[in-house]
Amino acid sequence: MSDMNRPIVAVVGRPNVGKSTIFNKFAGRRISIVEDTPGVTRDRIFTEVEWLNKYFTLIDTGGIEPKSDDIIVSQMRNQAMLAMDMAHVILMVVDGKQGITAADREIAETLRRTNKPVILVVNKIDSMSQYDNVYDFYELGLGEPFAISGANSMGLGDLLDEIVANFPEGLNTEIDEDTIKVAITGKPNAGKSSILNNILGEDRVIVSPIAGTTRDAVDTYFEKNGQNYLLIDTAGLRRKSKVYESVEKYSVIRAMSAVDRADVVLIVIDAQEGVTEQDTKVAGIAHDEGKACIFVINKWDLIEKDNKTVKKYTDEIRTKFPFMAYAPILFVSALTNKRMNKILETVDFVASEHAKRISTSALNEVIGEAVMLNQPPSDKGRRLKIYYGAQTDVKPPKITLFINDKELTHFSYQRYLENRIRENFGFEGTSIRFEYRQKKR
């Protein structure tokens, strides 16, 4: 069963009617940027929603402004149209305080032609006294309006019941554990969206040369060779000094939450610019969170090369990320398609390493041999004893060592053991966590 077949619900409506607020309430966490500037939600944003044990994908679209030629606005309109095409159920959100506008009428007209279930949601009805406003919306010809208050969570349960009741037969509403979740991170204009589009083979994300166009994390499900993937395209992290627009601040948090949700993190670095402080930050977060990581050096076609170039770049990355020697490095060009096929191959590989389990007997054989070759450290005549080890977790792999005294453990010896474990079992692309349990013999 694939997520491709999951019911899709699109939230549409003109800017500033509260679509993102509703989206965030359903998602149970802040994903969409909520701000009072019209047009802040630019791209389609996806999230998984669960209601009464049924799972569906919710898409928050950029606000539709029917009569505007501004480049970003017209792309937002296209994104919303795309979402409407993909959706099984459409929520049209209107502002109950403002009443019907010409734009609402035009959107309703478009939606009536889709022949899909459309649920009319009258938002911002915060008290019974405002309830009379709801009746005006019958005029839109979309059936009975649902009165809610997104901000106060009023009426959301009834609305969710109605959404679920409208799903077509034969869709998969169950949770799928086999999906590999991949976050694409990196600085604005390092080419993240181009990499995403290249992997998908379609223009799924707004790509325009204005830095910072992909403001939000965009979730895209797809399937290849029988494997399901969720690609999370993050709004590029900005350098600290530029966080004067509060929207950008959210984007930084968003990149962190994208890393948090992922199994595998692609750290996309612009070959011309080299490693920046921001790349170091994202990589550090991904490493600390124990994610599988891959360095993707993009725009490799633009670099003058001789037989030392790859080594020079590899050395730079290994020097700047000494704690991430486990992460593979790929040199690609999204533009010329060079080595782009390696990305998913490597994602599959590191995802399986990240989730790998090794048997206790095999692990102890390696630890025993390592201890014989190189004695553990001693302190004031007492030596560290390792009684045995076991792998106690995956994603990331965690090794628990049962020992005589925690005070005798030393980082350098742990690194030695880690290297021996990697030589024998791989664990490429993922960090390994160590935990010590004191056991009196």
Spatial ordering of strands, largest sheet: 2-3-1-4-5-6
Q: What integer value in Å does the Rg equal?
A: 26 Å
Largest sheet: 6 strands, mixed
What letter string, H or E per element, gives the SSE order? EHEEHEHEEHEHEEHEHEHEHHEEEEHE
Oligomer: single chain
Domain module tally:
3
Structural class: alpha/beta
Question: What is the overall silhouette?
Answer: elongated
| Helix percentage range | 25-40%
What percent strand?
15-25%
Low-pLDDT segments, ≥5 res: 30-35, 40-44, 206-217, 236-251
Structural notes for this entry:
- By secondary structure, the protein is an alpha/beta fold.
- It has 3 domains: 3-165, P-loop containing nucleotide triphosphate hydrolases (Rossmann fold, 3-Layer(aba) Sandwich); 180-354, Rossmann fold, CATH 3.40.50; 360-438, 2-Layer Sandwich (GMP Synthetase, Chain A, domain 3).
- It is 31% helix and 22% strand.
- The strands form 4 sheets. It has a 6-stranded mixed beta sheet, sandwiched between helices. Strands 8-9-7-10-11-12 form a 6-stranded mixed beta sheet, with helices on both faces. Strands 15-16-17 form a 3-stranded mixed beta sheet.
- Helix 10 crosses helix 11 (411-425).
- The model is unreliable at 30-35, 40-44, 206-217 and 236-251 (pLDDT under 50).
